[in-house]
Specification:
Elements: H1 2-30, E1 38-51, E2 58-75, E3 84-95, E4 98-109, E5 122-123, E6 149-154, E7 159-165, E8 175-176, E9 179-180, E10 182-192, H2 195-203, E11 209-210, H3 212-221, H4 226-233, H5 239-250, E12 253-267, E13 274-288, H6 291-300, H7 309-321, E14 325-334, H8 336-380, H9 398-405
Antiparallel strand pairs: 1-2, 1-14, 2-3, 3-4, 4-5, 6-7, 7-10, 8-9, 10-12, 11-12, 12-13, 13-14
Helix pairs in contact: 1-8, 5-6, 6-7
């Protein structure tokens, strides 16, 4: 009995220590981004176009065509480690016989869920910079709250934008298919695109420059007659100024593209999983380079007495300060089937998390307590001598029998 109590006590102490150490030691090793992630998600909406892609002229009425976005997110176990998961993202958006394709590789901290620096990570193609360290994209961090402030990576600009919780009064349904969620809103202000996106836009058929003839036509539409202004200026320009003006007027104007957008995301707070992306607007805009206009303004500012020059300077400054012109917008929301998929997978993850964080340590603690109680019972409970079954007398001990035998 005493040996049983000792064994029970030792086991109870070991299990109690395990229950105490479980959360700080075991949970971080178990509750993290899985490296078997494989998600096929879909979004539907429309592609709205504001300009003629060939001429750059603004359309009298924007056109709209149906849009489908297929998104595949896959973990790469062979490149992942115990602390970092390497994830690929493949996007395909077919529309009107064309298609937008995008490939990205992310390195994600498996506990914090933020992007980290890794040799495998890149944007669009190998060699391009990866997501900013500390930003989020594929998933949001665990244990979200309405006070959480996040920076979301935007691949097309190579920058981040803020994501903030919606005010309580504007919160969408607090649960989706029985799964509690928090709603966040993100807004990307007009931001220059990264070189890789500029290249992709041009490859899709958008112009990279505006010809001198087209520039002259646009200035004429704005009230600036280039031939008349040139004739008035040439007699007063210095040779250096003449070279500057003629060079600007003969050089195609480079076009700079910008990205802008907004949208809502519903996330499950315990896992940080993005359950629903809604009312997404992902737009592109364009604006001519202002370097040539700056040169013309600088030269003409020395000759404001020439008729027409002050008005031309004012118009050039207005054009230089104008906001980028929208080119197109992708407008879409997550499909019900993709939302249901995320709800199902997230509920499964929540079950595993609750098992690891709650039920296992409780089970260890209960078992440890039972063993310690058993050990105490065996150690301190009064021992009753064995009685003789036939006579009811106390049975002699082995030592007594030996003494009588002697």
């Amino acid at each position: 009995m005493r040996r049983t109590g000792i064994v029970a006590g030792v086991c109870g102490v070991v299990l109690a220590a395990g229950a105490i150490a479980w959360s700080p030691v075991a949970v971080p090793r178990l509750v993290k981004l899985p490296t078997n992630t494989n998600l096929s998600l879909q979004y539907k909406g429309s592609l709205v176009t504001f300009v003629n892609a060939r001429t750059g002229a603004t359309l009298a009425r924007p056109t709209s065509v149906p849009l489908t976005v297929d998104r595949q997110i896959t973990a790469v176990p062979g490149s992942s480690t115990s602390s970092v998961a390497v994830m690929t993202e493949h996007l395909v958006a077919p529309y009107s016989g064309k298609s937008i394709t995008e490939n990205n590789v992310y390195a994600v901290n498996r506990r914090s869920m933020c992007n980290v620096t890794d040799t495998h990570a890149c944007t669009f193609a190998v060699g391009n910079r990866s997501a900013t360290t500390g930003s989020y994209y594929l998933t949001l961090p665990m244990n979200l709250s309405t006070a959480t402030r996040l920076q979301i990576w935007k691949p097309e600009t190579g920058t981040t934008y803020p994501l903030a919780s919606l005010p309580a009064a504007k919160q969408h349904p607090s649960s989706i298919d029985g799964l509690g969620v928090l709603w966040f809103n993100g807004v990307l202000t007009m931001t220059p695109v990264a070189p890789w996106e500029q290249k992709a836009l041009v490859a899709s058929g958008l112009p990279s420059t505006v010809s001198p003839t087209a520039v002259e036509a646009q200035l004429s539409a704005a009230g600036i007659s280039v031939p008349a202004l040139t004739r008035a200026l040439l007699p007063v320009l210095t040779p250096a100024e003449t070279r500057q003006v003629t060079t600007v007027l003969a050089t195609p104007v480079h076009l700079n593209y910008y990205a802008f957008g907004s949208g809502l995301v519903a996330a499950e707070p315990t896992t940080g999983a993005e359950i629903d992306l809604k009312n997404i607007v992902d737009g592109r805009a364009v604006k001519p380079s202002t370097s040539g206009m700056s040169t013309l303004i600088s030269v003409m500012s020395h000759h404001t007495s020439v008729p027409g020059v002050p008005a031309a300077i004012a118009e050039l400054r207005r054009l230089a300060a104008a906001a980028p012109q929208p080119v197109f917008e992708l407008r879409y929301s997550q499909t019900p089937a993709s939302i249901a998929l995320m709800v199902s997978k997230t509920k499964s993850q929540l079950g595993q998390i609750h098992l690891a964080t709650t039920w296992i340590p409780i089970g260890l603690g209960v078992l440890a307590l039972a063993l310690l109680v058993l050990a105490g019972y065996r150690r301190f409970w009064p021992r009753t001598p064995r009685a003789s079954v036939a006579t009811g007398h106390v049975a002699p001990s082995e030592a007594t029998v030996e003494r009588h035998a002697a």
